[in-house]
Amino acid sequence: MGLSYTTLAVTVAEADAYATARAWSAWTGDEAVKTAALRRGQDYIASTYNARWNVEFDDADAPDEVKYAIIEAAYREIVTPGSLAPDYVAAKAVTRDRKKVGQIEKEVEYAQATSAASVRPQIAIIDRLLAPYLNQAFGASVDLLRV
């Protein structure tokens, strides 16, 4: 099933306890501000990982690690609102490649398209928290039996 885009899996009280245990001084604001950050954090987790869960759960019975990942994402939203979903303008990044061998020098300039994924943050602690609950992102794995 996965995380909802309408019902929060984490309460402000749970987030406050998690933040206090980590001495996050930036976890501030009234309940409405924290709830909005939790909503944006859960939206980030849901949009990034809902298609990859290897277990079934809904908001009411989300594993603790999923809740912690939502809080980690929400913390980043408290510190820098909108950071999990930055605006994106399609463009091409110009790259130059210069090589010199002896007296011969060659410089190549090319444009490489950027994508929305290139501006979306990848947060290591969230990846580590969720790893046990995720299928592999690419490809598939098959158990091999030796006879």
TrEMBL record:
- At the top level, the lineage of the source is Bacteria
Return the Pfam families for the record.
DnaT_2
Query: Domain Putative DnaT-like spans what residues?
Result: 10-54, 55-145
Q: What is this protein called?
A: Putative DnaT-like domain-containing protein
Can you name the source organism? Xaviernesmea oryzae
